[in-house]
Specification:
This protein is mainly beta. It is about 5% helix and about 40% strand. The protein is elongated and about 110 Å long.
């Protein structure tokens, strides 16, 4: 029998679905015979009819290829596996419940306006139930939700499989070729169960799917030998426990939602979409061959524009072989996503879409083998950022992210990709929401390994989905950037075997506390201010040698390298950049240079063209072995930041002398009170240091700029890339420098970022004519400097200047409660 679906108006669906998943608006096609909206939800009947009873259907059972609608207001017990249907509708007030027996329901699609139930929360389903979505009729678009859909529109989805051990870790290293796994916990897994076994090397592709042959206590025997080795070791260093153990997750459950087998080649998987006033409580369920390749809005499980859903959850499930993401939370708040396992998905996996998703709890999830789209497989990125696929894509910090694992990701483990305002559908009412200034909910106890970058707090999306460098600066009232700062502390993070960084954070008032970062290309970098690493452990290399592929250049002892294509990349623990940032109360070990590459516990961002703060500082560092403490690679061409690299050792825990600075600057390291350290490629110096900058306000190209110290050493500044108008470097307070731009300008601005009032810098510049000099001219043009003689300049206590021999001689003093001093040098025409 066939009846017409109770559909929503196309106009409403267009509003709900446009732009979902891609952050770009899209309009669904309308049809001349758009069906009417579904009626308001009605109470679900309690009396049960049986599917197998012909009277349920008016005298004739549904047959293969038929579109079926349940009787209105009735609860139907599915007590047989029906023939494959062309579609199934559960209208408002009706329900379909699986009987307590093994059952398979096959249909082109299923639309739930009433209730679809397998088991209950108090009495989980103990048999085997499978919902298979077929595609014998290609190209359907059911209620605007596309093809092969399990749609829940204003209805209720209850899937309650058996509660089982979702995942655990290896208790003992499993070498390549092994056919057994020794686990930390005795699992309730059974022969035939499929498992995901995480990579513990840099290569995400060393994640393996294995099959259980038998289980005895904590030992699992596999049906086939392992292709790769999987590490399992816990080491205690400096009071910190460093746990590098492969995770083992369960993929098999007794309830399964899947696409039929041919989806493996077509990429058109099943998808579950929950919309309107729907509720979904899903646990103990396996989602297989899900998501639809290269298609917006067609995700394995998609909570779409539901508002607050405190009564819904997605927990203890598995999701694998996905052609498009994993779980998408869109315009939805307060959802519990707990103890799930994913394996082999494409693009961002757990995806908070627009930036207005808050109050969600992502806890205890294991995400394994997240792949970036591969054009050779016909895969294209939905968003530009999918090229750096994330296990957890988080667009609003006001969520709980706790105890999760991102293992084997061809991109980022945890990506706080914060837009300025919500994008996509969230943009309509999102002007008052400021994710980049919203206080952090909870980020605690998460693990990322075997990928490119473990934690990325940077690179937020614009409305078109393109990401760019973004600053996270949380405050008490996000709409008011001047309101009180609310420091964001990312706590208890473990990252290992990350090719790029264990963690990268950009913003202000950010901290990484209690972190353990080991076996990474770089442990952590803060492109930030008033931020730093605290009470943490940094390890350059552990005993986890890895299993490098045959094509990879290997390190000493045959170990895998973070960047085999760049084998001599210098491994670093904490990497200074920007500022003011600090490393404080941190234990370090395992940073040992060798014939293949350099290593150091502390360093600077390499190949850097941008400004640095020489007040960046290290203190209370605890060296647990003979690790190299510092190494600065030779400056790269045209990279002014490399030429300025300097940091302060406040307590002597790096250099052995409190208050000394470590510098690689040619202007600084030759001072009489500097001691050269060849192994560090740097010098340890006394004195105080500041950041100096010079720019052409008119926008002209005045570079390169030569800077010479009193001892005759000089460097040439190339300026901010592609501009040649803004230049910066590190200078020593109290010394005099000669600065000579290659070009001329009628309006220069220069200044220093010092430490405190009273800091003084002396400068000389070639000049023509008799310019006007103003302190903070754009604030008050009356702050014009007094001209004095060169001899008087030596004894003045405030800002002043002298002209002699075609040189402008300046004394610049930090005043009042400021840390900076800024001066404009103008021709009379530009600054009268």
């Amino acid at each position: 029998m066939s009846t017409r679906l109770p559909l929503l108006a196309t106009s409403l669906l267009t509003l709900l679905l446009a732009g979902c998943g891609g952050n770009t608006p899209a309009t669904l096609p309308t049809t001349p015979d758009s069906p009417p909206a579904s009626p308001a939800p009605a109470p679900v009947a309690t009396a049960s009819l049986r599917w197998s009873d012909v009277s349920t259907w008016g005298g004739a059972l549904p047959v293969a290829g038929q579109k079926v609608t349940l009787p209105a207001g009735e609860r139907v017990l599915l007590d047989v596996s029906p023939p494959a249907l062309a579609g199934l509708t559960i209208p408002p007030g009706s329900a379909l419940e699986f009987a307590r027996q093994d059952l398979t329901l096959k249909s082109e699609w299923i639309m739930v306006h009433g209730e679809l139930r397998v088991g209950s929360e108090t009495e989980p389903f103990a048999q085997h139930a499978e919902i298979v979505l077929t595609d014998t009729v290609p190209g359907e678009n059911v209620m605007g939700m596309g093809d092969r859909v399990l749609g829940v529109m204003d209805g209720t989805l209850e899937l309650h499989g058996q509660s089982r051990l979702a995942w655990t870790r290896l208790a003992q290293t499993a070498p390549a070729g092994s056919t057994s796994l020794n686990l930390e916990r005795a699992p309730d897994w059974v022969p035939g169960d499929a498992l995901t076994l995480a990579s513990t090397d840099f290569n995400p592709s060393q994640t393996e799917q294995v099959t259980v042959q038998r289980v005895s206590g904590t030992q699992v025997t596999l049906s086939a030998p392992l292709k790769y080795g999987h590490w399992a070791e816990t080491t205690t260093l400096g009071g910190f426990e460093l746990n590098e153990r492969a995770e083992v997750g369960l993929l098999t459950h007794n309830i399964r939602v899947s696409a039929s087998d041919e989806a493996a080649s077509s990429g058109l998987g099943a998808h579950t979409m929950i919309m309107g006033t729907a509720q979904a409580r899903i646990e103990g369920t396996e989602f297989l061959r899900v998501g639809q390749r290269n298609a917006l809005r067609r995700y394995p499980v998609h909570f779409h524009q539901l508002g607050s859903v405190g009564s819904s959850y997605f927990r203890g499930n598995s999701l694998h072989d996905s052609f498009n993401r994993c779980l998408v939370i869109h315009g939805t708040r307060d959802l519990a996503v707990q103890n799930n396992v994913t394996y082999n998905s494409v693009g961002h996996c757990l995806f908070l879409e627009d930036g207005d998703e808050t109050g969600n709890r992502l806890e205890g999830n294991l995400v394994t083998l997240v792949r970036r789209p591969n054009s050779k497989l016909g895969e294209t990125p939905l968003l530009p950022s999918d090229k750096r696929a994330a296990a957890f894509w988080i667009t609003n910090p006001a969520n709980t992210v706790k105890g999760n694992v991102a293992a084997g990701v061809e991109g980022v483990g945890f990506w706080y990709a914060l837009p300025e305002h919500p994008t996509g559908l969230g943009a309509a009412n999102g002007a008052g929401t400021w994710p980049r200034r919203t206080p952090l909910g909870t980020f605690d106890g998460n693990i990322a390994h075997s990928g490119d970058r473990g934690l990325d707090v940077d690179n937020g999306p614009d409305a078109d989905g393109v990401t760019h460098a973004t600053s996270y600066d949380p405050v008490s009232m996000p709409a008011d950037p001047k309101s009180a700062a609310v420091p964001a502390d990312f706590t208890g993070f473990l990252a290992y075997k990350q090719r790029d960084h264990g963690a990268w954070l950009r913003g202000e008032n950010l901290s990484l506390s209690g972190a353990r970062l080991a076996d990474n290309g770089v442990g952590v970098t803060f492109a930030a201010h008033q931020s730093g690493l605290h009470q943490a452990l940094l390890v350059g290399e552990t005993a986890n040698v890895g299993s490098p592929e045959s094509w990879e250049v290997r390190g000493e002892g045959g170990r895998s390298l973070p960047r085999p294509w760049d084998a001599d990349f210098p491994v670093r623990g904490f990497q200074f950049y920007d500022g003011l940032v600090q490393i404080d109360n941190v234990a370090l070990a395992g940073f040992v240079p060798n014939a293949v590459r350099q290593a150091s516990g502390v360093g600077y961002l390499t190949e850097n063209a941008f400004a640095l703060n020489p007040q960046n500082q290290a203190r209370a560092l605890h060296w647990l072995d003979s690790s190299a403490r510092v190494y600065f690679p030779a400056a790269a061409a045209n990279k002014d930041g490399d030429l300025a690299a300097t940091f302060l050792d406040t307590d002597g825990s790096v250099t052995g002398q409190a208050g000394r600075s470590v510098t690689a600057s040619p202007l600084l390291k030759d001072a009489p009170d500097c001691v050269v350290s060849p192994a560090w490629n740097a010098s340890v110096c006394a004195g105080q240091y500041a950041r100096f900058w010079l720019e052409d306000v008119t926008g002209g190209r005045i570079g390169p700029v030569s800077v010479q110290n009193p001892r005759g050493s000089r460097l040439s500044l190339s300026g901010v890339p592609d501009q040649q108008k803004h230049f910066t470097t590190t200078v020593r307070l109290g010394e005099g420098y000669t600065v000579a731009p290659a070009g001329t300008s009628g309006h220069l601005r220069l200044g220093i970022l010092g430490r405190q009032p009273g800091d003084v810098l002396r400068l000389s510049l070639p000049i023509s004519g008799d310019p006007a000099l103003y302190r903070d001219w754009w604030i008050d043009e009356r702050n014009r400097l007094k001209k004095v003689t060169l001899s008087a300049l030596e004894t003045t206590t405030g800002d002043s200047y002298a002209l002699e021999g075609g040189l402008l001689h300046l004394k610049l003093v930090v005043k009042g409660g400021a840390q900076a001093a800024t001066l404009d040098i103008c021709s009379a025409a530009l600054c009268p």
